[in-house]
Protein backbone atom coordinates (compact mmCIF):
# COMPACT_ATOMS: atom_id res chain seq x y z
CA UNK A 1 0.00 0.00 0.00
CA UNK A 2 1.55 3.36 -1.04
CA UNK A 3 2.60 5.67 1.78
CA UNK A 4 0.60 8.88 2.13
CA UNK A 5 2.46 12.15 1.87
CA UNK A 6 2.08 14.36 4.95
CA UNK A 7 2.78 17.40 2.77
CA UNK A 8 0.01 16.50 0.35
CA UNK A 9 -2.32 15.92 3.28
CA UNK A 10 -1.64 19.49 4.43
CA UNK A 11 -1.80 20.96 0.94
CA UNK A 12 -5.35 19.92 0.08
CA UNK A 13 -7.14 21.85 -2.66
CA UNK A 14 -9.27 23.58 -0.03
CA UNK A 15 -6.25 24.48 2.12
CA UNK A 16 -4.43 25.87 -0.92
CA UNK A 17 -7.46 27.95 -1.92
CA UNK A 18 -7.91 29.36 1.59
CA UNK A 19 -4.21 30.22 1.87
CA UNK A 20 -4.13 31.79 -1.60
CA UNK A 21 -7.14 33.97 -0.87
CA UNK A 22 -5.60 35.12 2.41
CA UNK A 23 -2.42 36.15 0.62
CA UNK A 24 -4.40 38.03 -2.03
CA UNK A 25 -6.64 39.75 0.53
CA UNK A 26 -3.93 40.59 3.06
CA UNK A 27 -0.94 41.38 0.85
CA UNK A 28 -2.40 42.15 -2.57
CA UNK A 29 -2.71 40.07 -5.71
CA UNK A 30 0.94 40.71 -6.64
CA UNK A 31 2.10 38.76 -3.58
CA UNK A 32 0.57 35.46 -4.69
CA UNK A 33 3.08 32.84 -5.81
CA UNK A 34 3.67 29.13 -5.36
CA UNK A 35 6.53 29.95 -3.01
CA UNK A 36 4.36 32.21 -0.86
CA UNK A 37 1.75 29.46 -0.69
CA UNK A 38 4.35 26.85 0.19
CA UNK A 39 5.58 29.02 3.07
CA UNK A 40 2.04 29.48 4.37
CA UNK A 41 1.29 25.77 4.25
CA UNK A 42 4.74 24.66 5.40
CA UNK A 43 5.23 22.45 2.35
CA UNK A 44 7.55 22.53 -0.65
CA UNK A 45 7.05 24.59 -3.79
CA UNK A 46 6.82 21.30 -5.72
CA UNK A 47 3.98 20.06 -3.50
CA UNK A 48 1.85 23.11 -4.30
CA UNK A 49 2.65 22.76 -8.00
CA UNK A 50 1.60 19.10 -7.96
CA UNK A 51 -1.83 20.13 -6.71
CA UNK A 52 -2.59 22.93 -9.18
CA UNK A 53 0.07 22.79 -11.96
CA UNK A 54 0.06 26.51 -12.82
CA UNK A 55 -1.48 29.88 -11.92
CA UNK A 56 -4.63 29.11 -13.92
CA UNK A 57 -5.15 25.91 -11.92
CA UNK A 58 -4.54 27.76 -8.67
CA UNK A 59 -7.12 30.43 -9.53
CA UNK A 60 -9.59 27.69 -10.45
CA UNK A 61 -9.13 26.20 -6.99
CA UNK A 62 -9.89 29.60 -5.45
CA UNK A 63 -13.00 30.04 -7.57
CA UNK A 64 -14.29 26.59 -6.73
CA UNK A 65 -13.70 27.19 -3.02
CA UNK A 66 -15.74 30.39 -3.14
CA UNK A 67 -18.46 28.75 -5.23
CA UNK A 68 -19.08 26.38 -2.34
CA UNK A 69 -20.36 29.40 -0.39
CA UNK A 70 -23.07 30.20 -2.93
CA UNK A 71 -26.59 29.39 -1.70
CA UNK A 72 -28.56 26.35 -2.75
CA UNK A 73 -31.94 27.98 -3.36
CA UNK A 74 -34.83 25.68 -2.36
CA UNK A 75 -37.06 24.31 -5.10
CA UNK A 76 -40.29 26.25 -5.45
CA UNK A 77 -38.75 29.63 -4.58
CA UNK A 78 -40.27 32.48 -6.59
CA UNK A 79 -38.26 32.97 -9.79
CA UNK A 80 -37.37 36.63 -9.18
CA UNK A 81 -36.41 35.99 -5.55
CA UNK A 82 -34.27 32.98 -6.47
CA UNK A 83 -32.51 34.94 -9.20
CA UNK A 84 -31.78 37.89 -6.92
CA UNK A 85 -30.50 35.63 -4.14
CA UNK A 86 -28.07 33.84 -6.45
CA UNK A 87 -26.57 36.94 -8.04
CA UNK A 88 -26.37 39.05 -4.89
CA UNK A 89 -24.54 36.17 -3.20
CA UNK A 90 -22.08 36.07 -6.11
CA UNK A 91 -21.65 39.84 -5.86
CA UNK A 92 -20.84 39.63 -2.14
CA UNK A 93 -18.20 36.97 -2.76
CA UNK A 94 -16.56 38.88 -5.60
CA UNK A 95 -16.47 42.22 -3.80
CA UNK A 96 -14.90 40.50 -0.80
CA UNK A 97 -11.95 39.31 -2.94
CA UNK A 98 -11.13 42.03 -5.51
CA UNK A 99 -7.58 40.76 -6.00
CA UNK A 100 -8.90 37.45 -7.30
CA UNK A 101 -10.84 39.30 -9.99
CA UNK A 102 -7.69 41.11 -11.06
CA UNK A 103 -5.74 37.87 -11.39
CA UNK A 104 -8.47 36.00 -13.23
CA UNK A 105 -8.94 38.79 -15.76
CA UNK A 106 -11.11 37.59 -18.63
CA UNK A 107 -10.70 33.88 -17.95
CA UNK A 108 -14.04 32.02 -17.93
CA UNK A 109 -15.41 30.72 -14.63
CA UNK A 110 -16.27 27.13 -15.54
CA UNK A 111 -15.51 25.09 -12.44
CA UNK A 112 -17.87 22.22 -11.67
CA UNK A 113 -19.01 23.64 -8.33
CA UNK A 114 -19.74 27.08 -9.80
CA UNK A 115 -21.69 25.50 -12.64
CA UNK A 116 -23.66 23.38 -10.17
CA UNK A 117 -24.35 26.15 -7.63
CA UNK A 118 -25.04 29.06 -9.98
CA UNK A 119 -25.16 28.48 -13.73
CA UNK A 120 -27.19 25.27 -14.05
CA UNK A 121 -29.88 26.12 -11.45
CA UNK A 122 -30.23 29.68 -12.75
CA UNK A 123 -30.71 28.48 -16.32
CA UNK A 124 -33.05 25.70 -15.21
CA UNK A 125 -35.19 28.18 -13.28
CA UNK A 126 -35.29 30.51 -16.29
CA UNK A 127 -36.50 27.72 -18.57
CA UNK A 128 -39.02 26.51 -15.97
CA UNK A 129 -40.35 30.08 -15.76
CA UNK A 130 -41.17 30.00 -19.47
CA UNK A 131 -38.05 31.21 -21.26
CA UNK A 132 -36.59 29.51 -24.30
CA UNK A 133 -33.03 28.20 -23.82
CA UNK A 134 -31.71 31.19 -25.79
CA UNK A 135 -33.73 33.65 -23.67
CA UNK A 136 -32.61 31.87 -20.50
CA UNK A 137 -28.95 32.19 -21.45
CA UNK A 138 -29.31 35.84 -22.50
CA UNK A 139 -30.97 36.78 -19.20
CA UNK A 140 -28.33 34.90 -17.22
CA UNK A 141 -25.50 36.47 -19.18
CA UNK A 142 -26.77 40.01 -18.64
CA UNK A 143 -27.04 39.52 -14.89
CA UNK A 144 -23.68 37.79 -14.69
CA UNK A 145 -21.89 40.56 -16.61
CA UNK A 146 -23.56 43.22 -14.46
CA UNK A 147 -22.41 41.42 -11.31
CA UNK A 148 -18.87 40.88 -12.56
CA UNK A 149 -18.50 44.46 -13.79
CA UNK A 150 -19.88 46.07 -10.64
CA UNK A 151 -17.55 43.96 -8.50
CA UNK A 152 -14.45 44.38 -10.66
CA UNK A 153 -14.12 48.09 -11.28
CA UNK A 154 -14.00 49.33 -7.67
CA UNK A 155 -12.23 47.89 -4.64
CA UNK A 156 -15.28 47.73 -2.35
CA UNK A 157 -13.10 46.65 0.56
CA UNK A 158 -11.53 50.13 0.51
CA UNK A 159 -14.31 52.55 -0.50
CA UNK A 160 -12.55 55.53 1.05
CA UNK A 161 -9.42 54.85 -0.98
CA UNK A 162 -11.39 54.32 -4.18
CA UNK A 163 -13.28 57.57 -3.64
CA UNK A 164 -10.10 59.53 -2.85
CA UNK A 165 -8.35 58.26 -5.98
CA UNK A 166 -11.35 59.13 -8.15
CA UNK A 167 -11.67 62.57 -6.54
CA UNK A 168 -8.02 63.31 -7.30
CA UNK A 169 -8.45 62.21 -10.92
CA UNK A 170 -11.57 64.35 -11.42
CA UNK A 171 -10.01 67.36 -9.69
CA UNK A 172 -7.20 67.28 -12.23
CA UNK A 173 -9.60 67.64 -15.18
CA UNK A 174 -10.07 70.87 -17.10
CA UNK A 175 -13.56 72.22 -16.22
CA UNK A 176 -13.87 73.68 -19.70
CA UNK A 177 -13.47 70.24 -21.26
CA UNK A 178 -15.30 68.24 -18.57
CA UNK A 179 -17.92 70.60 -17.12
CA UNK A 180 -20.33 67.93 -15.89
CA UNK A 181 -17.74 65.74 -14.18
CA UNK A 182 -15.96 68.61 -12.46
CA UNK A 183 -19.04 70.57 -11.39
CA UNK A 184 -20.94 67.48 -10.28
CA UNK A 185 -18.08 65.74 -8.47
CA UNK A 186 -19.92 65.49 -5.16
CA UNK A 187 -22.85 63.81 -6.90
CA UNK A 188 -20.70 61.50 -9.04
CA UNK A 189 -18.32 60.14 -6.41
CA UNK A 190 -20.79 58.50 -3.98
CA UNK A 191 -22.21 56.29 -6.74
CA UNK A 192 -18.80 54.66 -7.31
CA UNK A 193 -18.94 52.67 -4.07
CA UNK A 194 -22.70 52.55 -3.51
CA UNK A 195 -23.85 48.92 -3.46
CA UNK A 196 -27.42 50.07 -4.13
CA UNK A 197 -26.36 50.96 -7.66
CA UNK A 198 -25.73 47.26 -8.28
CA UNK A 199 -28.81 46.02 -6.45
CA UNK A 200 -31.07 48.48 -8.27
CA UNK A 201 -29.64 47.56 -11.67
CA UNK A 202 -29.99 43.85 -10.92
CA UNK A 203 -33.65 44.27 -10.00
CA UNK A 204 -34.23 46.18 -13.22
CA UNK A 205 -32.70 43.34 -15.24
CA UNK A 206 -34.78 40.79 -13.35
CA UNK A 207 -37.95 42.76 -14.01
CA UNK A 208 -37.08 43.15 -17.68
CA UNK A 209 -36.40 39.42 -18.04
CA UNK A 210 -39.47 38.27 -16.09
CA UNK A 211 -41.46 35.92 -18.34
CA UNK A 212 -44.97 37.04 -19.22
CA UNK A 213 -48.11 35.38 -17.81
Textual characterization of the structure:
The protein is mainly alpha-helical. The chain has 13 helices and no strands. The longest helix is centred in the last third of the chain and has 20 residues. It is flat. The mean pLDDT is 89.
Helices and strands, with pairings:
Blueprint lengths: L5 H5 L2 H15 L6 H8 L3 H8 L2 H13 L11 H18 L1 H7 L7 H17 L4 H20 L6 H13 L7 H5 L1 H8 L2 H15 L4
The H/E string reads HHHHHHHHHHHHH
Structural class: mainly alpha
Strand-residue proportion: under 5%
Number of strands: 0
For the sheet with most strands, the description reads:
none
**What gap, in angstroms, lies between the N and C termini?**
62 Å
Mean pLDDT across all amino acids: 89
Shape: flat
Radius of gyration: 21 Å
Helix content: over 70%
User: Number of helical segments?
Assistant: 13
Spans where pLDDT lies below 50 across 5 or more residues: none
Task: Spell out the key features of this protein.
213 residues, mainly alpha
At a glance:
The chain has helices at residues 6-10, 13-27, 34-41, 45-52, 55-67, 79-96, 98-104, 112-128, 133-152, 159-171, 179-183, 185-192, 195-209.
Amino acid sequence: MPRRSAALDRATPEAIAVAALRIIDEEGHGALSFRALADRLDVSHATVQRRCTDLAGLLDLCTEHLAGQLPEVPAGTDWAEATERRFTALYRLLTAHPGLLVLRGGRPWLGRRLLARLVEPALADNVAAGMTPAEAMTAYRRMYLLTLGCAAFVDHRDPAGATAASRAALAALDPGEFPVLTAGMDAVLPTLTDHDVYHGALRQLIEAARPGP
